[in-house]
Every structure is written in structure tokens, then in C-alpha cells.
Design brief:
There is one protein chain. By secondary structure, the chain is mainly beta. The strands form nine sheets. Strands 3, 5, 6, 7, 8 and 40 form a six-stranded antiparallel beta sheet that branches.
């Protein structure tokens, strides 16, 4: 490496684990106990004197400092493209030209004493434009000028004062009691380029459109009323007491708290075969009622709305990510309930608004809803005769997966049908590749270990002691067998490829979305750090779902990785291409764009190139990204 401290990357190939000889855990027998004088949590602002500039022997003090360094606010921007310095390898000449967009929070503390949860941090869009022929990568980064960002940032002085509460935070240097600015749309969760337009999304509001060349914010976009033909809505529940309750809540939520009637989810899907972008919304009042109303929208490449389907489900659910097949929308439901005490404190501004909700572990199973995707499939059982009702499965009745799991992210789902030529009947199997965690671990208010009362981060939340690590996010494969009438014959939940380490962000070659895929990639942990055995992640894992083998690539000491992204190459095989991932060298406060040869993961030469982001533009951990070919 040129002008850089030498570091070591590791690779590993793991063959299928025999049922007769289970693999031994690589986790330490006991976590290293903290020194008496070491605080368990350090300010999210991560003062510079807490960050070491050299790699040192791993101990608890360094580990906790490193965790804080992932969440250092970055106030600098660059609208002018900056050419990144290659520090390892070279950008492959055959690398397809295009741009990797990565969004996430950029700011966690203002200039008046308030800090916010990472999920409430202002959206900071980063772009890496790659030119394989020239062997160069150009970097840009700008804040998304949301309504909240414009209000909270002084354009003349550049100083910040948080005025919006946000769903996960409580202000200390701003107005607490009576503050109705709850839905702080920071556009920090995901990004997509479709129909020649670039959008940044957030969990609970309209997308913001961005000018792709300059990263200037165009503004908030009403994609629902963008025109186009709409299919007939799907069926739902008959009018009942909850319709009356919803009518009473709407003026309060829409008017007082300025919540949009439709809350968009931050995760979208792309149907590569049909060339469609699919997005999902729920109603604002769903947060407070024991039912859920979901609307699916499908757009063609001209951003024309070609289909809209609505479903009302008689359960109080929270959905973060979802899936689709050729015939179904798939919702992996997370059961929630209203917390009365938490609601009162939240409304008064004494606790985060999210404390009005809590997980609902009343059932030992997880509901999976298979919703008919196209109008030809019956959706309203109230308008079918009795004979048809007995022949067609009611989509409002979920399939109960035999595992109480909070679904986080969905890598892929596909459905395959088998026909019995003797009797003419057919059956099908749906497989879902996802990440999920235990209801016993998931906590709305403590995600990433954030303590809203102290404004600090405690990594212990993400790094449980041995024996409890199974509660953390893991990769799973859900298999559902359906008979000819769509009734569930069997449902199983198993670790994906028997991968037992904490992992998240499953991704695939998106050309295979909605159909059978062989390879899944994810971020995971090597378990090499005793004080941070599970998170932040330091490894990219490649899982072959056919032969059940796994291959890994890991970064060096005191370095972490975010979500991997697959970039298709010019070959015809599914794993012909590259993996893009950002490496966070927290000990030296540097970020790197890493290019991996996806076929070589597990080999010593998997690393194709590493490029350094200038230190003054070092950025905090990103959430989700998108690859857009030129």
C-alpha cells in the first residue's frame, strides 16, 4: 500500500457443515471485561481525543472508541467531484461504468447541545462514479435539503439547531414539550435511480428527488399522484369500529403532527424481468390501530404508474422490508402493539415518539402474508360465492412461520410450481432469504445502542455475551410449501447455509430478483474482536445456496464494513461481477471504497482495488446503496 500502514485482509472458504459434526463456535468464551475507569458509552459526537491514530492491541477501551467513531458527524460537502487515490490494486479495466450511490445519516449533534438517534440523522448522499477504462473513481457528497434540514441549518453560518424531534430522539437544546415536529423526514435510508431520476427515501414520508449530476435537491415528490392507469384496489375489511377510529385520528395526525396520509417505506423492489419499480406505503393512522393498510405501486421505466394494489390486514404490523415473486407481494410481518404509558410520555415530549409502540410477542410464530400481486387473482373474499371461498386461500390469513423473528431485511424471494401430470394438480414452493432477530432483543428505543436520555451510544446492545448471540440479526431461509389451493402444507425456518454468525444486509445480483438465485452476499462479523464480536461487521460473506458452501473476505484490524452491493459484469454467470463495499478504518478516521471480484471471494486475490476518500470528507456509517450503470 502506498504511504499507508500495512494491513492484512483475510479470506476463507467454508464447506458445508455436516450434520454429524457441527462446527465449533469461533466466539470467545467470555467477553473481555471493561476496565473500571472505562465508560460503557461514549458521546455520539466522538471527540477527537478519543480516537487513536494508530492500530493498537485490541482491548475494550479501543473497541468502545472505535464504535463511537462510526458515528462522527460530517459537516463538509463536496459538489465538485474529487478523484480518489488508489491505495491497493487497480480499478479493473472491464469494470462497467456507472455510479454507486450510498445514503445514510451525516449529522448527529447540533451546536446547541442536542443529539439525535442515528436513524434521525440528516441524510447525507455519497456517490462514487467509476470509470473502468480510465481506472478512476470520482467522489461527491452533499446533504439532502429536506424541509427539516433547511429549517435546522443556518445557510449563512452553517450552524445547526435541531428543532424537529424525530421519531427516535428527544431534544435537549430545543423545544421538548409541545413539539409536534415528529415526522422528521431526513431522507437518509435508501436511494434509487429509476426512469432517469434519482430519489432518496426515508421510512415514513415522501421521497426527495436529487439532481444526479450535481446532487442538488430538487424537492419532495408526490409519486402517488404521478399519473398512469391504476388497477382496481385489492379487497380488505368491511367498515367497522376501526374505520371510525381512523377518521377521528386523521385530523390529529395529518393536521397537528403534519404526518403524510401515506407513509412510504424506505425499501423498494425492482422487477428486472418486467422492468418495474415497486414501492410500498402504509397509512399514518396504522401506527395506532390494530390493523394495517398497505398500498403497492408499480412503475414502468417512464415512471408511469401501471398498477396500484391495496390491502387491509387485521393485525397491528410494522414492515421495514418486503419481497415479491411473479404472483405475490410478500410481507414478513413484525407484530407490534400500542404502549399506553409510552404514548403519554411521547406526546408530552418526555420520551421519543417511537416509545408509543412496543413489540408484541403474544404469539410464538411470525406471520407471513402472501398477497396476490395481479388483478386476475381474487383478493376480495367478501364478493366470492361459497364454493370459490373453499377453493381459494384467504390472503388475510397469514402463514405462521415456526419462529418468533423480527424481520429486518429481505435479500430475495422466489416461487416455483410443480405440476402432477397424473391428477393435474399443482403445488408450489416459496423461498425467502432474509435477516431477522429475536423479539427478545429488538428494542425500538435502543437500536445501535443509542440512549436517548444520555445522548450516548453503548455497543453492548449490539454485542451480547456468548450464549445470547442467537438473539442478534442472522441470515435465514424460509421455505413455504403450498398445495393447489394455495393452502400451506409446511413452513420451515432455517439458518441460511447454516451460517451461524450475526449478519445483515443480504443482497443478490438484482437481475435474479423474484426468481431462483444461487448466490447471496451479506455483511457479517469474523468474531475476531473480543469486545466487539458481532457488530460492527468486518466481513463480506458469499453464500452458495445450492452446494451450501460459504466464502468470506475480511478487512484488517479496527476496520469495519457496511452493506455490500453487487455490480453485474459482462459474463453470463450469476456471480460474474463485483462487490462494492465501504471500509471504515476508524482508528485512522478514513473511509475506503473497496472493489472485490465476486468470483474470487474466499481467495487471496479477491481484492481488486481499494480507494481512499480524503480525510476531510470521511463520513459515518452508511445505510443502503444503489448501483446505476451509465
Amino acid at each position: 500500500m502506498l504511504g499507508h500502514t500495512m494491513q492484512v485482509q483475510s479470506c476463507n472458504i467454508i464447506q458445508p457443515i455436516s450434520a454429524a459434526s457441527p462446527a465449533k463456535s469461533s466466539l470467545p468464551a467470555n467477553r473481555v471485561s471493561l476496565p473500571v475507569k472505562t465508560p460503557r458509552a461514549i458521546s455520539i459526537t466522538a471527540p477527537s481525543d478519543l480516537v487513536s491514530t494508530t492500530d493498537v492491541i485490541d482491548d475494550s477501551t479501543a473497541a468502545f472508541r472505535d464504535y463511537q467513531s462510526l458515528w462522527v458527524s460530517q459537516r463538509s460537502e463536496t459538489a465538485a467531484p474529487v478523484t480518489l487515490r488508489v491505495v491497493d490494486g487497480a480499478v479493473p479495466a472491464e469494470f462497467p461504468s456507472g455510479t454507486y450511490y450510498l445514503t445514510g445519516p451525516g449529522l448527529f449533534s447540533d451546536d446547541h447541545g442536542s443529539t439525535v438517534h442515528p436513524l434521525d440523522g440528516h441524510g447525507y448522499l455519497r456517490t462514487f462514479t467509476i470509470d473502468g477504462a480510465k481506472g478512476e473513481v470520482k467522489f461527491m457528497a452533499r446533504y439532502i435539503e429536506t424541509e427539516a434540514q433547511v429549517e435546522e441549518r443556518d445557510p449563512e453560518t452553517g450552524r445547526w439547531r435541531f428543532t424537529h424531534r424525530g421519531p427516535f430522539s428527544v431534544l435537549k437544546g430545543g423545544k421538548m414539550v409541545g413539539n409536534t415536529k415528529v415526522m422528521k423526514n431526513v431522507a437518509n435510508t435508501s436511494v434509487v435511480r429509476w426512469g432517469g431520476r434519482l430519489f432518496c427515501l426515508w421510512e415514513g414520508g415522501e421521497p426527495y428527488e436529487i439532481e444526479s449530476r450535481t446532487l442538488e435537491t430538487v424537492g419532495k415528490v408526490d409519486v402517488i399522484n404521478g399519473g398512469g392507469d391504476q388497477s382496481a384496489s385489492g379487497g380488505g375489511l368491511k367498515a367497522d369500529v376501526w374505520d371510525v377510529a381512523a377518521a377521528m385520528l386523521k385530523p390529529i395526525l395529518y393536521g397537528v403532527f403534519s404526518m403524510p396520509p401515506k407513509r412510504f417505506l424506505s425499501h423498494y423492489k425492482i422487477d428486472a424481468r418486467r422492468n418495474r419499480l415497486m414501492i410500498l406505503s402504509c397509512n399514518a393512522e396504522d401506527m395506532l390501530l390494530p390493523r394495517s393498510h398497505f398500498t403497492f405501486y408499480e412503475f414502468d421505466t417512464n415512471f408511469k404508474l401501471v398498477q396500484r394494489r391495496e390491502f387491509t390486514i387485521p393485525e397491528h404490523l410494522m414492515i421495514h422490508d418486503w419481497a415479491f415473486t411473479d404472483s405475490h407481494y410478500i410481507l414478513f410481518g413484525n407484530r407490534i402493539k400500542l404502549d399506553i404509558t409510552g404514548s403519554m410520555a411521547a406526546v408530552c415530549g418526555l420520551s421519543p415518539m417511537i416509545s408509543a409502540l412496543t413489540v408484541n410477542p403474544s404469539k410464538p410464530t411470525s406471520p407471513i402474508y402472501l398477497l396476490p400481486r395481479f388483478p386476475g387473482a381474487p383478493v376480495d373474499h367478501d364478493h366470492h360465492d361459497q364454493s370459490n371461498r373453499n377453493e381459494i386461500r384467504d390472503w388475510r390469513v397469514p402463514i405462521e412461520a415456526p419462529s418468533q423473528m423480527w424481520a429486518l431485511h429481505i435479500g430475495n424471494a422466489f416461487e416455483e410450481t410443480t405440476r402432477d401430470h397424473e391428477n393435474g394438480n399443482s403445488s408450489s414452493q416459496i423461498q425467502i432469504q432474509a435477516s431477522g432477530c429475536s423479539y427478545r432483543w429488538f428494542n425500538f428505543q435502543k437500536l445501535f445502542g443509542y440512549d436517548w436520555q444520555s445522548g450516548k451510544l453503548d455497543p453492548a446492545m449490539m454485542n451480547l455475551n456468548q450464549g445470547k448471540e442467537k438473539l442478534l440479526p442472522h441470515l435465514v431461509q424460509v421455505s413455504i410449501n403450498l398445495d393447489s389451493n394455495g393452502n400451506c402444507e409446511n413452513c420451515t425456518v432455517k439458518p441460511l447455509n447454516q451460517w451461524s454468525k450475526a449478519a445483515d444486509f443480504p443482497v443478490i445480483n438484482h437481475e435474479f430478483s423474484g426468481k431462483r438465485n444461487m448466490f447471496t452476499y451479506a455483511a457479517t462479523s469474523s468474531g475476531s474482536r473480543q469486545a466487539l464480536p458481532h457488530f460492527p461487521f468486518d466481513t463480506v460473506v458469499k453464500l452458495n445456496t445450492l452446494d451450501k458452501s460459504t466464502r468470506t473476505w475480511s478487512v484488517g484490524t479496527r476496520r469495519f464494513v457496511g452493506e455490500p452491493i453487487f455490480v453485474p459484469g459482462s459474463g453470463t454467470q450469476e456471480d460474474d461481477g463485483y462487490i462494492l463495499v465501504v471500509e471504515y478504518a476508524v482508528a485512522t478516521r478514513r473511509c475506503y471504497l473497496v472493489i472485490l471480484d465476486s468470483k474470487r471471494i474466499g481467495e487471496a486475490d479477491a481484492l481488486a482495488a481499494r480507494l481512499e476518500v480524503p480525510k476531510n470528507l470521511n463520513f459515518p456509517l452508511g445505510f443502503h446503496g444503489f448501483w446505476a450503470p451509465s
